[in-house]
């Protein structure tokens, strides 16, 4: 395992880390026993960073992380997020009283005295422009409740706005072969400002595994079913904003990336890690087999400049026009 500095903070995180949305809920059937085994396997492999949120299973993923990392609090870093269990458009959701309550609830579920990275969870840009929530986070940081803070964003514009705040230490962004826009300006600018980049949805909700067919069915409680067209939250969070059937077709055109790289999953993760402005990828998982598959990227050689250019052309010529929602 290799480790990368989280921006200008003193935290080093494994370049392959993991997100816990799937084991908390909203990705279909999940088994806590399998989830805990997956977490244990990841840590055995050197993973020292996990991303979660208070709304993942209504706090369930935080509780699972507490169980899995008990006694390892100094070695395993946890990032969690807040605001989406309330009305994200209401300014009262970001007052000191509200944020402090969110923080204390997460600390209790995580069974920790401090959150390593506390992130605002995809708030509307009006909240970011107002900026008063950052003052609240500064206060919590000063009290030792949180070590660093950042923002999970939906768009490049939101990310650039966050970079104007000198104490933001990390941005969480959607970035993958199907969503290359952040690399043009946001990622290099973040690097210049000493802001770490956590890459979520690196596999575009599974499209970049190459395993789906157009008639694939998902459980009713899986966001790939109920949010396929942005019915419940930002459409970009599901299949990178692509219509599912189009995404499947496009993924077939990418099968070549898996040749000599194990499979498409590992190749798609390798493409992201080739970018020096990325701190880590945080793919999801529901079992040990998926953890192992994601860890397989560690044995994959970087893409050649020729292949990177080929994939960049593919994005601009075949993918870009089909992405829905602001990004």
UniProtKB/TrEMBL annotation:
<dbReference type="InterPro" id="IPR020471">
    <property type="entry name" value="AKR"/>
</dbReference>
<protein>
    <submittedName>
        <fullName>General stress protein 69</fullName>
        <ecNumber>1.1.1.-</ecNumber>
    </submittedName>
</protein>
<keyword id="KW-0560">Oxidoreductase</keyword>
<dbReference type="GO" id="GO:0016491">
    <property type="term" value="F:oxidoreductase activity"/>
</dbReference>
<dbReference type="Pfam" id="PF00248">
    <property type="entry name" value="Aldo_ket_red"/>
</dbReference>
<dbReference type="InterPro" id="IPR036812">
    <property type="entry name" value="NAD(P)_OxRdtase_dom_sf"/>
</dbReference>
<dbReference type="InterPro" id="IPR023210">
    <property type="entry name" value="NADP_OxRdtase_dom"/>
</dbReference>
<feature type="domain" description="NADP-dependent oxidoreductase">
    <location>
        <begin position="16"/>
        <end position="313"/>
    </location>
</feature>
<dbReference type="InterPro" id="IPR053135">
    <property type="entry name" value="AKR2_Oxidoreductase"/>
</dbReference>
């Amino acid at each position: 395992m290799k480790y990368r500095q989280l921006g200008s903070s003193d935290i080093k995180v494994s370049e392959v880390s993991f997100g816990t949305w799937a084991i908390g809920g909203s990705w279909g059937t999940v088994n806590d026993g399998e989830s805990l085994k997956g977490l244990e396997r990841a840590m055995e492999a050197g993973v020292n960073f996990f991303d979660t949120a208070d709304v993942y299973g209504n706090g369930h993923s935080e509780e699972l992380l507490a169980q899995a990392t008990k006694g390892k609090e100094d070695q395993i870093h946890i990032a969690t997020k807040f605001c989406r269990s309330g009305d994200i458009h209401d300014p009262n959701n970001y007052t000191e009283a509200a944020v402090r309550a969110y923080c204390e609830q997460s600390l209790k579920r995580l069974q920790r005295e401090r959150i390593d990275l506390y992130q605002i969870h995809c708030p509307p840009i009006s909240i970011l422009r107002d900026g008063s929530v950052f003052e609240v986070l500064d206060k919590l940081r000063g009290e030792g409740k949180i070590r660093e803070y950042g923002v999970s964003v939906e768009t490049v514009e939101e990310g650039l706005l966050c970079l104007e705040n000198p104490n933001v230490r990390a941005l969480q962004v959607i970035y993958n072969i199907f969503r290359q826009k952040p690399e043009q300006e946001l990622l290099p600018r973040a690097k210049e400002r000493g802001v770490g980049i956590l890459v979520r949805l690196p596999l575009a909700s599974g499209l970049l595994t190459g395993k789906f067919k157009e008639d694939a069915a998902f459980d009713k409680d899986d966001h790939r079913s109920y949010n396929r067209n942005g019915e419940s939250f930002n459409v970009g969070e599901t299949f990178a904003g692509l219509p599912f059937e189009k995404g499947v077709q496009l993924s077939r055109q990418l099968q070549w990336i898996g040749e000599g790289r194990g499979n498409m999953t590992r190749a798609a993760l390798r493409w992201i890690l080739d970018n020096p402005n990325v701190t880590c990828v945080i793919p999801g998982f529901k079992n040990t087999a998926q953890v192992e598959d994601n860890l397989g990227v560690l044995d994959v050689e970087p893409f050649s400049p020729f292949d990177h250019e080929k994939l960049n052309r593919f994005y601009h010529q075949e993918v870009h026009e089909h992405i829905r929602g602001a990004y």
